[in-house]
Amino acid sequence: MERPPFSWLDRQNASAAQIEAEIASFESRNEIRLHWIAKHHLTDGSGIANDPFPRIEEHDGYLFGILYVPSNTTDTFAQFDELVFVATHDEIFGAYTRTDTSTADWPALFESSSSARVFDQSGDEGGRSIVRTLKTVVKQLLRDVENFADVVLGISATIGQYGNADGDVLADTHALSHRQRRKLNRAAQEQREPVSRLRREVPLMRRVIVETETVLNQLATDVIDLNTDASGSQRQLFARDLEIFISDLYVDARHATSVVNDIEDRLEHLIDYLKQLRAEETVAASRFTGAIASIMLVPTFIVGLYGQNFDQMPERSWDHGYLFSWGLILVVTIGQVWFFRKRRWI
Questions:
Q1: Pick from 273, 8, 251, 243: nearest CA to 124
Q2: Which of 150, 230, 248, 270 has a Cα at 20 to 30 A from 221?
């Protein structure tokens, strides 16, 4: 039975001995010797999957690469499955590590990408296998950033229905009624934690996309390639049609970067708006306290004034002095309540 030109092992289900045996078989078939660094990463992984840096390098007679793919494109955590591979003109061998939150069915993804006829079949199988893998990586990155963008738009819409969070973040919210302001503050409080999490996760997503974009540009412009095979013959790993396809993937990666830029801009608007709301909430609480104190002050003064035990007080001889004091208290109190409600302090 002919061996397929691509082979991937799940590092969490394969033993170190099994991976080492596959490495030895790969070396024997392709008449090369892998650098011990490449062997180490194939066997044990990079060890920095939580701080990912994608890369593809030309070694002696083969390409070595580490790629990172979003483990779950439906949540808002920047976690990545790690793909480590080596490739010659004729085949690619690699191992992948899944995170605990991974939803990717890698065997199915590899199988579907290998059977997809998305570019000309000329060129070497090793190069085509790498391009198929890169296509899967970029596709998953695009899905992930679009999910992040949808979440940010949802947060903006939730807050924006009560105030202008999507435009001028310094919009005046004093025109809102007390009920609207309470709803706005409640919605803002619920969204503070998601916004804070996104602010932490998006920079990591940006780095993976930008580094992947750099790798794609280097492959498309022939900075990284294998120009001779194991026999010493002149033979490019990436034929011209593959480089054109990689250029298209590079544009897709740039689009993902553009989406991340938009996400970061929207997050900055939201963060500024949430800060403004918190400051206004503090000011509103101070105004409310001041208004209540003022409303209580005048009646207290009147009661204290007429509570003095003096014999000579003009109002004491009035027939309606008692009603006058009550009327004065009610008029002043109602007047202050009307004044402060008009200014939206209470």
A1: 243
A2: 230
Residues 325, 304 share a domain: yes
> If you ran DSSP here, which 8-state letter would residue 75 be given?
S
Mean of pLDDT values over 173-201: 80
Instruction: Give the structural domain span for 134.
Output: 6-281
The C-alpha angle 78, 127, 212, rounded to 5 degrees, equals 25
What pLDDT was estimated at residue 2?
A: 45
The angle formed by the CA atoms of residues 43, 44 and 50, to the nearest 5 degrees, is: 140
* pLDDT tens digits for range 315-346: 667 777 778 878 888 888 888 888 888 777 77
Assess whether 306 and 230 both reside in one domain: no
- Those residues whose C-beta lies under 8 Å from the C-beta of residue 191, and which sit 6 or more positions away, are 155, 158, 159, 270, 274
Token readout for 203 is 């920079």
Distance between CA atoms of 3 and 209, rounded to whole angstroms?
Answer: 33
69, 80 Cβ separation under 8 angstroms = yes
Residues 310, 176, single domain; the answer is no
pLDDT tens profile 270-301: 888 888 888 777 777 787 888 888 888 888 88
Q: Are residues 277 and 327 in the same domain?
A: no
- Asked if 260 and 308 sit in the same domain, the reply is no
Tell me, yes or no, whether 202 and 163 share the same domain.
Answer: yes
Residue 1 pLDDT grade (very low, low, confident, very high; cuts 50, 70, 90) = very low
* More confident site: 37 or 276: 37
CATH number of 309's domain: 1.20.58
CA pair distance 66, 95, nearest whole angstrom? 10
The length of the chain is 346
Rounded to whole angstroms, how far apart are CA atoms 309 and 8?
A: 98
